């Protein structure tokens, strides 16, 4: 399965919905008004900060001197704006496949209202974030196994050895990491709980099938990734650029699978006993 040489995924810049969500998490749900709660998720615009983040990320991408053979953007407004503000010399095609995860009935609801109206579902989210689905929404596992695999299959058929750029959303990027980097359920849970793994606004995930130290050596599969995102240092905008990380498919012996199973407790002993 020959994949693109480079695959860049960019999360959109800060949106007005992000402002609402941040305030709600901090304990202030006042921005969730009768008007804002009726705005479709696809319609939210970038803030001024989001525009600046996109410009910084775009300048850094341009510095990589990579000519993109394909550029794809989510159909959501905040992604369209981000793609435009990157300022790159590409022609964009839109795709619903890389849209935001569906939050179903809680998409326009504050954290406080969600906990009050869907207390059992909220508890499930905390206990099993990989397979949890919002009411009438998608789980990360759903996004990964349906939409992410869909687009990766398309890239395999249509863009082997080429360079591809996508402007998408944080949850879709999270699901892409799950698939491409071949995380186990346990690794997903560990990373999901790790605050250093957050996908910030305008984070750039760069996947590569080439060796950074030997660009002429290209593998069939994407096997390295690095994360970068806009930051302000002493009042000046720059990109934080992470280290390259390697990944590969993992295999397990029967004993190793039993070790994974033993990490979970038994609730009923001697069920078939006397």
Automatic annotation (TrEMBL):
Family: Belongs to the phosphoglycerate mutase family. BPG-dependent PGAM subfamily.
Record Pfam families: His_Phos_1
Coiled-coil intervals: none
Name the record gives this protein: phosphoglycerate mutase (2,3-diphosphoglycerate-dependent)
Active site positions: 12, 100
SUPFAM superfamilies, alphabetized: Phosphoglycerate mutase-like
Organism: Arthrobacter sunyaminii
Record-listed E.C. numbers: 5.4.2.11
Superkingdom of origin organism: Bacteria
Alphabetized UniProt keyword annotations: Glycolysis, Isomerase
Isomerase keyword on record: yes
